[in-house]
Amino acid sequence: MARWCYRHRLVVVLLWVGALLGLGTAASGAGTNYVNVFSLPDTDSKRAYDLMEKAFPERAGDTDTVVWKVEDGSVRDASVRSRMEPALAAIRRMEGVGEVAGPYGPQGAAQVSRDGRTAYAQVTFAEQADAVPKELVEDVVGTAQDAAGDGLQVELGGQAITRVQEPPTGTAELVGVLAAAVVLFVAFGSLLAMLLPIVIAVFGVGTGLFGTQLISHVTNVPELASLLSTLIGLGVGIDYALFIVTRHRRGILRGDDPEEAAVTALNTSGRAVLFAGGTVCIALAGMLVTNLRFLDGVVIGTSLTVVLSVLAAVTLLPALLGLLGHRVLSRRQRRALAARGPEKDRPTGLAARWAAGVERRPRSTAVLAVVLMAALAVPLLSLRLGTVDQGNDEASTTTRKAYDLLAEGFGPGFNGPLQVVVDGEASDSLVTAVERTEGVAQVAPIPPANGVTVIQVVPKTSPQDERTDRLIDVLREDVIPEAGARAHVGGVTAVSKDFASVTGDRLPLFIGTIIGLGFLLLLLAFRSLVVPLTAAVMNLLAAAASFGVLVAIFQWGWGLDLLGFGREGPIAAFLPIIMLSLLFGLSMDYQVFLVSRMHEEWVHTRDNARAVRVGLAETSRVINSAALIMVCVFLAFVLSGDYAAGMAGVGLAAAVALDAFILRTALVPAVMHLIGKANWWLPAGLEKRLPHLAVEPKEDGTGALPAPRAPDEGDAPAASAVHGFVRTVDGDPVDGAAVTLLTSGGRQVDRVVSLADGSYIVSVPSPGTYLLSVRAAPYGSRAGQVTVLGGPLVHDVKLAPGEVDAVS
User: Fold this and answer.
1) H or E stretch covering 456
2) Rounded to whole angstroms, how far apart are CA atoms 124 and 121?
3) HSE on the CB side for 551, CA within 13 Å?
4) Mind telling me which residue stretches traverse the membrane in this protein (predicted)?
5) Which of 148, 178, 454, 499 gives a 20 to 30 Å CA spacing to 88?
6) Gyration radius (Cα) of the chain, Å
7) Does 718 have pLDDT greater than 50?
8) Please, which residues have CB within 8 angstroms of residue 239's CB and are 6 or more apart in sequence?
9) Are residues 576 and 507 in contact, defined by beta-carbon separation less than 8 angstroms?
């Protein structure tokens, strides 16, 4: 497929451009039909909501609030009324506004605070918040605030009002892409190579978003799906292309033709991308087991975007590589390739030194990593799930100011009233019992409508206060049953509490499902029980530490002002499920890219220490670059202006950073060094029964090498290897030693350069006797015969200054 796409590059590019433009045109013509369907079946708040719909079916539009306060005097003063009444009347006349209920009418006495300094009016729109035109909301805000001044403060709150505070759409995405571009340019040193991952991400996210928009017309897809699709699509699209382009550039620098380099890149890194994309989709699909139906549309949108990003990486990317040819390298690399010829690919610098350091001190590395992750996970013990509201907005926003004015004038519980909904007429004993309940500030029974009575209950504490949660429990478990009433407790605060409870109850099943599926996939890919078990433990550790960071910032308020958000509060109840889905998928990506290289080395050498060292040295740089890109993309969503989106962005950025920089490049290799060859253990009975899923193309069916034996005449060539270390007579590693393997007739078979730790490996085409020559300045040279049978041969070499071996 890669070769076909490379050779028919113009056709492939035109097909992708046509698909993007076609889906974009269709989606633009059809419009969006996102539906924020939120249902919690078999909960008390859902039963209350159903009765409320029966009692007040006409209340369809969004209701927002205009709040004003005077510094001196009363809001009933003629000087205040003469300014606010015309403003409210002007709002009432606007097309799209259904009703304005102010404090100056016969029924408005309750809308003035006890001290007379604060009042509010309720503006009911004809549509729900998402459907109200932004221009209308801006007119309402402008008209109301024009009345302010001379000691009169006017603020507005509500869902529709929030829309005028949001930054321009696309700001977060643009900043994330620009940050990713900087990282890519530093990694590649080439403008054209930098653009490739970004182009792939744009096509993947674009087609995914347009496709999701069209799907919203045939099934329920929440607006949250578009945000998360962009978030995950940008990250995986750039990362997957980064892995493939890195492998392609490496092939060209080794002297491969660009077409062969592209084919090899797709047949190695491309396979890993397919596998990694599959694990992300499986992790996202794990949300379905929670039975929270509003998440179904999120799964559809995000999974579609991931699938299209993978498809773009394995089809569009080789076509673009064909268009660029050698220009995928930087000018400096092209000049060096022309002047000095192909270079032997070997990890150097910090990556090689780090890999060697982890091998030398695996125990201390593991202990430090575990202590750090455990310390970061400590705040998780105080995790409290809930719902964010406008009290968490930044202090300078009008919604936050309106929230604070209402809390100051009418009590902190006014922003989250409860409704005790009675099926029938509420008895006086029930109303009295609710009034006498500790924590209740105010009770207002509403006359029965359609056989349903609603008792409005204002708590003494704010909606996010734990005491409000306890009040809901007392009303449900004690007050209502003792009064003998058929009643349910509803309202936004009660719904929030029920959602947090349902999410917490179903979280263990969800975590068990995605860990189990990830374990099975890694078991099939790497033919090992220990590798997937290690990955599962690491994923749980990453999740615990990232949620600890989230609690410290958003629940405890550490550094919250630096992010530009307002007051601390509980962690959004929907976040654990969505965040864990993305985290487990992305963590599995890094595990696949890291361990697949280790597994490839293990299959060829049967040397666990070398496999772990080489795998880490060759993949750590690209994994860290990919993680840094993810962190930039996720943190950019702090600029979205949405508190919940910012919380998700910070949480995912912390999770990816900890996973890549601490777990995958430190703890995982350290633990694998400590475990040794048991990393690759699989019971023989299980080995025979498991289907084989090859992440690397050169694996055989079992991953096992044949037993050593003397070669017979006429045997087919069997690949093997000679490997070991080049050291001085004092035992110090020799970096950069030239190691050459020759046949007995003097023909060169393979040539490599030793790594920073002195390790080397040369390929052997078939069993037999060969000549191994090693040279390094200022040391001498050493050569000798090596006999390779059926398996890899370990052969260490010591060099001394001025010493030369003569071999006839």
Assistant:
1) strand 452-459
2) 10
3) 18
4) 174-193, 224-245, 272-292, 298-325, 366-385, 507-526, 538-558, 570-588, 622-639, 645-667
5) 454
6) 33
7) no
8) 197, 589, 626, 629, 630
9) yes
Structure tokens at 383: 């995790």
* Type of residue at 457: V
CA distance 270 to 715: 33
pTM equals 0.75
Distance of alpha carbon 343 from alpha carbon 332, whole angstroms? 14
Q: Name residue 787's beta-bridge partners.
A: 769
> How many other CB atoms are found less than 10 A from the CB of residue 31?
9
Beta-strand ranges (E) seen in 297-374 are none
Phi then psi dihedrals of residue 366, to 5 deg: -65, -45
Provide the residue type at 505 as one letter.
D
Kindly report each contact of residues 698-705 with a partner whose C-beta sits within 8 Å and lies 24 or more positions away, as own/partner.
698/600, 698/603, 699/599, 699/600, 699/603, 700/603, 702/527, 703/527, 703/599, 703/602, 703/603, 705/603, 705/604, 705/606, 705/790, 705/791, 705/792
**Largest CA-CA distance found in the chain, in angstroms, rounded:** 114
Distance CA 276, CA 244 (A): 13
What pLDDT is stored for residue 281 in this prediction? 87
pLDDT at 705 over 60: no
Number of H helices, E strands in the chain: 26, 18
Q: Which of 264, 252, 244 is nearest to 337 (CA)?
A: 252
Question: Got the DSSP string for 503-552?
Answer: HHHHHHHHHHHHHHHHHHHHHHHH--SHHHHHHHHHHHHHHHHHHHHHII
- In this structure, what token pair is assigned to residue 573? 């109840």
SS3 of 149-175: the string is ECCEEEEEECHHHHHHHCCCCCHHHHH
For residue 587 the two structure tokens come to 């963590």
Closest CA to 152 of 76, 231, 48: 76
Q: Is the pLDDT of residue 707 over 70?
A: no
